[in-house]
Design brief:
heterodimer; A: mainly alpha; 3 helical TM bundles of succinate and fumarate reductases; elongated; B: 3 helical TM bundles of succinate and fumarate reductases; 4 helices; 85% helix; 0% strand
């Protein structure tokens, strides 16, 4: 059974921030490795970049951009809460962060396809 | 969490606010017409701006990712402090090394 405190928008905001952060941090070494192929093995990099033309990979990229954007906006929400003397409209900020991330990653996807 | 780690986490986050907005902009611009090694290098090679932009980004994200990873592991696995610190430093240093290699690969002439 779902615990009471979990049935709250700000718990989901916390979960989204944590999951997005974890996925991004695991993606990062792989991202760096692929880019460094430009120096060591340009052919291999082009082979890899060609693979990114596959629609399902584009959708995965959309997911990564979404996670980056939602982590950015969710982090801004946290910084605002911690550093500025505001406390009202917390749920609205969480909603704005998620909606903004969809807007950003949606723009990415529209340009990618 | 250690106060110094908390401060480093928030400072690295603040540094990255403009960098992440910029990076998202670059991605949306660069993805148009598909990506290739030549396309990436023609934008980045020999550019001091992108070298500094992504160089700073690599340092900040390595600090931020390493501390974030430490926080998650400490809450999920309840490891001893020494192991948490070992994981944090290992991840951070490997990330800075790989990131520096990637930045130099695409910006160095």
């Amino acid at each position: 059974m779902m615990k009471g405190y979990r049935n709250h928008p700000l718990w989901y905001a916390y979960l989204l921030h944590r999951v997005s952060g974890l996925v991004l941090v695991l993606f990062l070494p792989f991202h760096f490795y692929v880019l460094s192929l430009a120096l060591t093995k340009p052919d291999k990099l082009n082979g890899f970049l060609h693979w990114t033309e596959i629609p399902v990979v584009k959708f995965a990229e959309f997911g990564l951009v979404f996670l980056l954007a939602v982590h950015l906006l969710g982090g801004l929400r946290l910084l605002v809460l911690e550093l500025l003397p505001w406390s009202a409209n917390q749920k609205a900020m969480a909603a704005v962060a998620t909606a903004g991330a969809f807007l950003i990653s949606g723009t990415f996807l529209l340009n990618a396809v | 969490m250690d106060l110094r780690l908390y401060i480093a986490q928030r400072l690295s986050a603040i540094v990255m606010i403009p960098l992440v907005f910029g990076h998202i902009g670059v991605m949306i611009y660069a993805i148009q017409g598909g990506l290739s090694a030549d396309e990436i290098l023609s934008r980045t090679q020999g550019s001091i701006f992108w070298f500094l932009f992504y160089g700073l980004f690599v340092v900040a994200v390595s600090v931020h990712g390493a501390i974030g990873l430490r926080t998650i592991i400490s809450e999920v696995l309840k490891l001893r402090e020494i192991f948490l610190d070992l994981i944090m430093w290992s991840f951070g240093l490997v990330s800075i090394f790989l990131g520096a290699r990637a930045v130099s690969a695409v910006t160095w002439i």
